[in-house]
Write a structure and sequence with these properties.
mainly beta, Tachylectin-2, Chain A, four-stranded antiparallel β-sheet, binds beta-D-galactopyranose
Length: 306
């Protein structure tokens, strides 16, 4: 396995879970992410050792069941038979409803002007998700996004707003099906994308990228004493291309944390750009004495032995 490149599933196929997330449920880690082949939107793989990934299902496709949340609303996974865009899918399990709830970024497939969030749910981590449609949280634009659940059970949706100029932090309702309040507007005017939030002890961290499309750029981190509290100014994370990657998520395993980034279009980046050449950068997060996170390049994926 070579860092930055493909990962293969247990059938020997390239694993497509880009811009994704990982949750632990029962004995397994579930890896969800974008799959842009054919009629697929989101695929799911699982593993009990973070090394062997078993393909489970294309959990969201053009053919998935659509069920609007409110009578009179619409929910569709295509536009006139064409693909739409479902980007950066993130999933949390909701203990209250017993559902796995997915939030993602919705665009109509023609342009990038919808800037909306969308939701899908499932009774199982790796079943067919039911799509519930898209909306703008409190009317705000919503693009690159992530979910974060704190240890007190509070869950947050964080997404780029105002044409990416600002990053919004929303607290979610208990059923994870809606935004409850807009708790913070971060990095106003700084154009941050690809948010990934994690916690270490009493400190919270957020990784973000700058806004350069598929081209990698200098990642940054910010820290806070709570998701809804004030966040520090941005400071550099990784090198000036974040080792040719853009943050997807950070996975806690025991006391350690692992950075997962997307290497869009491969390296060197394919020209013309070929999404299916995208790989993954996986590196253990290290912390200096001041508690600042950093990563060091390693030619191999850096994963724990579990
Ligand atoms: C990136 C963003 C990706 C995708 C891409 C499209 O900046 O993080 O999720 O939207 O742009 O150009």
């Amino acid at each position: 396995m070579s860092n930055g490149g493909f990962i293969y599933d247990t059938d020997g196929n390239v694993l497509h879970a880009h811009g994704g997330c990982m949750i632990k449920h029962g004995d397994f880690w579930y890896w969800y992410g974008e799959d842009r082949r054919g009629d697929r939107y989101v695929s799911c793989y699982r593993s009990n050792d973070l090394r062997r990934w078993e393909f489970r299902r294309h959990v969201l496709t053009m053919g998935s069941e659509c069920r609007p949340l409110h009578p009179g609303d619409t929910a569709s996974l295509s536009e006139n038979g064409r693909r739409i865009n479902i980007e950066r899918p993130k999933v949390l399990f909701c203990g209250k409803t017993g559902k796995f709830v997915m939030w993602a970024h919705y665009e109509n497939g023609r342009d990038y002007r919808e800037a909306a969030a969308c939701i899908a749910t499932c009774d199982k981590p790796d079943g067919d998700f039911i799509y519930h449609g898209h909306f703008r949280p409190f009317g705000h634009m919503s693009r690159d996004c992530t979910l974060f659940r704190d240890t007190d059970g509070a869950s947050y949706f964080i997404s780029a707003s105002r044409d990416n100029a600002d990053l919004h932090v929303y607290r979610l309702t208990d059923d994870l099906m809606n935004v409850e309040s807009l708790v913070r507007v971060l990095f106003a005017g700084e154009y941050r994308e690809a948010p990934a939030v994690f916690r270490r002890g009493q400190r919270y961290y957020m990784l973000t990228s700058a806004c350069t499309g598929w081209e990698p750029n200098q990642g940054c981190f910010s820290e806070s004493t709570g998701v809804g509290e004030e966040w520090s100014r941005l400071r550099n994370f990784g090198d000036k291309t974040t080792f040719h990657s853009q943050s997807a998520f950070v996975l806690p395993v025991g006391d350690d944390l692992y950075y997962f980034g997307d290497r869009w279009g491969g390296y060197p980046m394919s020209h013309p750009f070929d999404y299916s050449k995208s790989g993954y950068v996986i590196l253990k997060l290290r912390f200096n004495d001041a508690g600042d996170p950093f990563i060091v390049w390693n030619d191999e994926f850096e994963l724990p032995t579990v």
